[in-house]
Design brief:
By secondary structure, the chain is mainly α. The chain has helices spanning 6-38, 44-71, 97-125, 140-163, 170-182, 201-211, 213-225, 234-267, 278-292, 301-322, and strands spanning 76-81, 86-90. The protein has a two-stranded antiparallel sheet with strand order 1-2.
């Protein structure tokens, strides 16, 4: 039996701390995405795009809360999703530690359900081996090696999958739509967010923990003790935690991807409205041309998609220089 040395004891704290750091990174990444989306509100001819994207993000955010509340038996009394904010009210507030745990999961559900939706779509339509996880063992060094390997390989695989989307296929186009429309809702409501006051998810969760801290402390203790499963059954510990890591890393990668996409769309806002459509049109033109013109053997969808984005960027920059929108 493996000796209970300090390294093994410290390993019990490692994975949960990594989850917290990754969720913080995801929150910041999605806030960046929301900031880039706000650029679209500067002009009326782009504001409708913001309204659609923001509504879908808010809707999926609230659905994430509602789904966990329904599955945990709390029920739904009120459900509302708007362009700027939404609200879900449980029908009943059950008591007890198990109910508190479900409330904890419900409050944090937007962190993992929207990325999980995209990961499932990618696994079904593009990359069946996306959820292949490594099997570690006990000890802090093993935990660190798993994180380094997983934290490098998984994001690269995810970026490659996004680059390999064939946008002429409805299923692949649906994956792109899920990323662009769903990921803006993949973070809890914030106390200091533009539209969320002290009623935000984090604020409510903190209030519940202050009212009854013992279930939360017990949950953290159980999470710590679960690490000792690595002594006899490492898969039971590492596979679920790697799944949580995967959703958090996906949330970060997809939010950064969305930030770049909507930043590119924001460049069209500098162009006089009657020419602004040429940027996205150039993206579509390259996609169409790649399918009607004989391309060199070995051309990949990644190359086609990068060429499409480059064409959009070039047209937007040129038009922004020669046909800039009047400030009036």
């Amino acid at each position: 039996m493996t000796e209970l040395d300090p390294s093994l004891l410290a390993a019990g704290l490692f994975a949960p701390v990594v989850v917290w750091v990754l969720w913080r990174g995801q929150t910041v990444s999605v806030e960046l995405l929301r900031t880039r989306l706000l650029v679209l509100t500067r002009h009326k001819d782009q504001a409708w795009v913001y309204a659609i994207v923001s509504w879908f993000g808010t809707f999926l955010h609230e659905v994430s809360h509602a789904l966990v509340l329904l599955l945990s038996g709390h029920g739904i009394k009120q459900f509302r999703a708007g362009v700027e904010k939404g609200h879900v009210t449980p029908a009943t507030m059950r008591k007890g530690p198990v109910s508190f745990l479900f409330f904890l999961v419900a409050a944090l559900a937007p962190l993992f359900l929207p990325p999980l939706l995209v990961l499932v779509l990618l696994a079904v339509f593009l990359d069946p081996g996306l959820f292949t996880f490594a099997h570690g063992g006990p000890g802090l060094q093993v935990a660190w090696d798993l994180l380094v390997s997983f934290g490098m390989d998984f994001p690269l695989r995810l970026v490659r999958d996004l680059g390999d989307l064939d946008l002429a296929r409805p299923a692949h186009l649906g994956v792109l739509a899920a990323v662009l429309l769903g990921i803006p809702g993949a973070r809890p409501s914030h106390v200091k967010s533009r539209w969320h006051g002290p009623e935000g998810d984090i604020a409510v969760l903190r209030a519940r923990i202050r009212e009854n801290p013992l279930p939360f402390v017990a949950f953290l203790l159980i999470l710590y003790l679960a690490s000792f499963l690595t002594l006899v059954w490492p898969e039971a510990y590492w596979v679920p935690l790697q799944a949580v890591w995967a959703m958090a890393i996906a949330g970060i990668v997809l939010a950064l991807f969305g930030s770049l996409w909507w930043s590119l769309a924001g460049l069209d806002g500098r162009v006089t409205p009657w020419l602004a459509w040429l940027g996205p049109a150039s993206f579509v033109a390259v996609q169409v041309a790649a399918r009607v013109v004989a391309l060199p053997a070995g051309t990949t969808f990644l190359q086609v998609n990068l060429a499409s984005l480059a064409a959009w960027l070039l047209v937007a920059l040129v038009l922004g220089a020669v046909a800039r929108r009047s400030k009036g």
